[in-house]
Amino acid sequence: MESNPAPPALDTDTDAGTARLSGQWTLENAVPIGDLLATAPCGLTAVDATGVARIDSLGVLQLLRWTRRCGVDFTAFEFRDEHRALVAAIEDVADDRPKRRREFGVAAALARLGFAVKDNWKEFLALVAFLGEVLAKLLRTVKEPARFRPIALVHHMEQVGLDATPLVAVLSFLVGAVIAFLGANVLRDFGAEIYVVELVDVAFLREFAVLLTSIILAGRTASAFTAQIGAMKSREEVDAIRTLGMDPIDLLVIPRLLALLTMLPLLTFVAMIAGLLGGLTVGAYGLDIPPQQYLARMHDTIEIRHLWVGLSKAPFFAMVIALVGCLEGLQVEGTAQSVGERTTSSVVQAISLVIVLDAIAALWFMVMDW
Questions:
Q1: Is there a contact between 350 and 321 (Cβ–Cβ < 8 Å)?
Q2: Residue 72 is inside which H or E element, if any?
């Protein structure tokens, strides 16, 4: 070890556009290195660093920042053979810095919008591809019944359906009561409060029951699917399943999908009954419509087609919720932060797609006069 290590030095030849480094470019000399580079000229074409006795990560980072500030090509540096491995390693990771502050303005907003559209389009294509893969493996399960997991299916049916029944029933009852109150306030001016019965019946049978149930399950079940599968992905359990020769789609996705396809129509029916009871309660205790008259009006005006329209949407919404929740879980990258981000993304995507599909279905049924 040198008893009197040479300090860092930087000799430049402005006319030739070259410089020569020497001395100790290490952490102990951080202040002198900074002073040297602060006064160093820009526009150099070649830098000879073979005279450097010792250099560490701080020295390399200081040189990198100086080259970026002055516009010097870092490939113009010539290092000793024993220093090149360290310089290459530091150069590879030097760009891993915190993101720049968010820029404001029309151009920045348009750029963010463009990136968001591109990312959303990628997510949509991934969802369509995942749908195709799941349907293909569902058909394979029909041909190979041994792949079917009945115990997992029953477990998820309980988790998705039975455990969610009280929440769906209570919220649907309250929403039905709110719709009856709002409808009565408007219809009272026309002396037509009795038409609250038709308002609640049609609204809940066609739209609110299936939409409210799907939104509840999108927030409750899609997030659970993503968190469960994402935690398995971060613990490398999904990789272990593949190593054992089993298919994660068969074990993790198909039971959840079938459970949701089975339970969402049933929960929708529960929501319909609860919403109608909410309207009946408001009619009996808030609008002075006797229960017998309310039920008689319901019997005379209700149409079974409204029930089938509402129930026909449930399987499609169930498919969307299950696929989004499972796909986002399988896309977890292995960190706790990724699990949280994917869980949030699954809830947002599931709710958004459910509302979009419901709007498209409502327009289609209206055009078809169903």
A1: yes
A2: none
Contact between 211 and 358 (Cβ < 8 Å): yes
Tell me the two tokens of residue 161: 């359906």
- Here the tokens at position 122 are 């990628």
CA 171 to chain centroid, in Å, comes to 26
DSSP string across 134-196: HHHHHHHHHH-GGG--HHHHHHHHIIIIITTHHHHHHHHHHHHHHHHHHHHHHHGGGT-GGGH
State the Cα–Cα distance between residues 200 and 314, nearest whole angstrom: 19
Query: Between residues 299 and 103, which one has the greater pLDDT?
Result: 299
CA dihedral of residues 62, 68, 71, 72 (deg, nearest 10) = 40
Range list of β-strands (E), the chain: 9-13, 18-25, 46-55, 77-78
Domains within the chain, CATH numbers bracketed? 9-93 (3.30.750.24), 126-368 (no CATH)
∠ Cα 197 201 205 (to 5°): 175
Q: What is the pLDDT of residues 76-132, one digit of tens each?
A: 788 888 888 888 887 776 665 555 666 677 887 888 888 888 888 888 898 899 899
Query: For residues 358 and 207, is the Cβ–Cβ distance under 8 A?
Result: yes
Strand 46-55's sheet: what is its strand order?
Answer: 9-13, 18-25, 46-55, 77-78
Residue with tokens 């000229």: 41
- For residue 326, the tally of other CB atoms under 10 A from its CB is 26
Task: Extract the tokens encoding 275.
Answer: 């919403």
